[in-house]
């Protein structure tokens, strides 16, 4: 199983953007994640042109997936 932390932000135009964090610490509190996301927004961390992609934190969730190989030529 693979677990990621998926962060959702709105940019300065109101469009949603998602950022994935691989191998996150499990059991993070709502307050901890919200504070980290607010810090990302306050520091204008990610921009594309004049748009701030992390302008407004919206939410976060853990996402767990299971991989099942169907075919691979890798040795």
From TrEMBL:
Stored InterPro entries = DUF2922
Name of this protein: DUF2922 domain-containing protein
């Amino acid at each position: 199983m693979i677990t990621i932390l998926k962060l959702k932000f709105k940019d300065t135009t109101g469009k949603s953007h998602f950022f994935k964090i691989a191998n996150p610490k499990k059991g993070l509190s709502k307050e901890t994640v919200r504070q980290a996301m607010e810090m990302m927004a306050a520091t204008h961390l990610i921009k594309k042109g004049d748009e701030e992609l992390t302008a407004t934190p919206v939410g976060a969730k853990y996402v767990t997936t299971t991989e099942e190989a169907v075919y691979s030529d890798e040795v």
